[in-house]
Every structure is written in C-alpha cells, then in structure tokens.
Write a structure and sequence with these properties.
Blueprint (H helix, E strand, L loop, with lengths): L1 H13 L1 E8 L6 H9 L16 E8 L2 E8 L18 E7 L6 H12 L11 E6 L9 H7 L10 E5 L8 H30 L1
Parallel strand pairs: 1-3, 1-4, 4-5, 5-6
Antiparallel strand pairs: 2-3
Length: about 200
C-alpha cells in the first residue's frame, strides 16, 4: 500500500498542473459542473451539488492535466472573496445560468468588476464562459449571451463561450479542452518572453 501511495505521489508531481478559478452567480451550476468533471459517479442527477459557502478547492485529473479548481460562492455576500484568488489562477471559468435572464445585468456587472481588477487588468488570462442550463426552454444562445455581456469588447484576453449542461455534462469537456489549449499557449508565450530577456542580458 505504501509503494502504491508513493507511485501516486510521483505521478501527481510529474503531471502538468493548472489552477483555475470558477466564478458565477449563485445557482448558476458551478459546483455541479466541477462534480461532473471529477466524474464522482455516473448515476443520472447524482452530480448535483449543494451551494458553496465561501469557497471550496477541488483537485482532479482531466485530459492529462492535474486541475486545482477554486470553486467560489456566487452569493452576494461572498462575491468580494473572488478577488483574493485572482493572482493564484491561470484561467477563469465564468458559469452563467442562461435561463436566468432577470440577473443577466448582475452577471455583466460582476464580470466588469472582475476584468477591471488590478490583478487581472494587464494579464493575458483565458476566460471560459459556460453558457449553462441549455437544456432549459428559456435558455439564451451563446450568441445572445456574448451580446448581453458585451464580450466582443474583451480584446486583451482570449475568451470562449461554451454551451453546457451541468446535469448531463454536455459541452463541459469541450470547454475544458479549449481552456487547456489557451493556458498552454499563454505559458509558452511567457517562456519565450523570458528567454528573449535572458538573451538580451547576455
């Protein structure tokens, strides 16, 4: 048993690692999405999660990457905690309840606050928007979500809107795949800049 644990520990050390911040308003489906990605169980409806209080940190493997997901509460009194994790993340997942049209203005306000924060303002950090609850009849399309949030105005960061259902898992893996590619690209470009700086010093 000890040898097996040591093997898992070494595997964990050698894996590619990514830290991702998961935000969004309460009841948007953040924790349920993370539970589905963790693949705790394949029973229908068993991935549904209870609301997060404060934040939770979840760790799991997906597509060859060891993910650390920081799941932030979307309740009004906890949203000010989001900013404390901006420095620690390599990517951000913003989960949107596409059927909750009444709160879309609030979604946009919180997004603008996030984008204007000093820890993110000048960072080329990938933003993945999960247009969640697409299985609801009243859900908005990705095009409508992008228009409602004025995503076309985000020109300094890569972003992508992925239709998703936290219950069925539709669209989740595709979104994660895009995020992995973008984080790798950012890391690669960052390394190239570092090498150029070293060459100039020489």
């Amino acid at each position: 048993m000890g040898m097996f644990n040591n093997f898992l520990h070494l595997l964990k050390i050698n894996k590619e690692k990514m830290t991702v911040l998961v935000v969004g308003l309460n009841n948007s489906g953040k924790s349920t999405i993370i539970n589905h990605l963790k693949k705790k169980t394949h029973e229908p409806g068993s991935n549904i999660a209870i609301p997060t209080v404060g934040f939770n940190i979840e760790e799991f493997y997906s597509q060859g990457v060891l993910f650390t997901m920081i799941d932030m509460s979307g309740a009004w009194k906890y949203r000010n905690l989001w900013q404390h994790q901006f420095k620690n993340c390599q990517g951000i997942i913003y989960v949107i309840d596409s059927s909750d049209k009444m709160r879309m203005v609030v979604v946009k306000e919180e997004l603008n606050i996030l984008l204007q924060h000093s820890d993110l303002l000048h960072r080329n950090i990938p933003l993945l928007f999960y247009n969640n609850k697409i299985d609801c009849e009243s859900s908005l399309s990705c095009v409508n979500i992008a228009a409602a949030l004025d995503l076309s105005s985000i020109t300094d960061k890569p972003w992508h809107v992925s239709s998703s259902s936290a219950i069925t898992g539709d669209g989740l893996e595709e979104g994660v795949q895009w995020l992995i590619q973008q984080i790798r690209l950012v890391n690669h470009n960052h390394k190239k800049v570092k090498h150029k700086k070293r060459d100039k010093r020489k």
